[in-house]
């Protein structure tokens, strides 16, 4: 990895850390439009519970990513020359992968081995862009 590439990833990691910290703990608002369109109030409670369950899962996911982002920033500060190497096999993680997910810890092959579903990429990758 070249120093400019490292600088680029560092900036992206710092941006992610800031964005994820800022929205931590925010709860999803109940869907008021939906309540107006469907006057049967009995339906509102399950809907709100569902929304908050989604928001809660979302916050848990954000916290997980934030942890990875902070770990990546620490690796970058402690061992800048090793940053971008797979934590498992030590091979360089492709820069394209790091650009999409600068907190990636493993190369695609090792990530695939670790992920029980066998998927190497995250489906929610675009959430933070
Ligand atoms: Zn690997």
Task: Assign the CATH topology.
Answer: Four Helix Bundle (Hemerythrin (Met), subunit A)
**Ligands present:** zinc ion
What would CATH call the architecture?
A: Up-down Bundle
> Which structural class do the helices and strands define?
mainly alpha
Could you explain the architecture of this structure?
The chain is 57% helix and 0% strand. The model has no long low-confidence stretch (mean pLDDT 82). The relative contact order is 0.14. The two termini are 23 Å apart. The chain has one domain (3-128): Four Helix Bundle (Hemerythrin (Met), subunit A). It has 5 helices and no strands. The structure holds zinc ion (ZN). Zinc ion binds next to helix 5.
Sum this structure up briefly.
The chain is mainly alpha-helical and 129 residues long. Helices cover 57% and strands 0% of the residues.
Topology:
Elements: H1 3-22, H2 32-37, H3 44-78, H4 95-100, H5 108-114
Helix pairs in contact: 1-3
The chain binds zinc ion.
Residues 86, 88-89, 91, 106-107, 109-110 line the site of zinc ion (ZN).
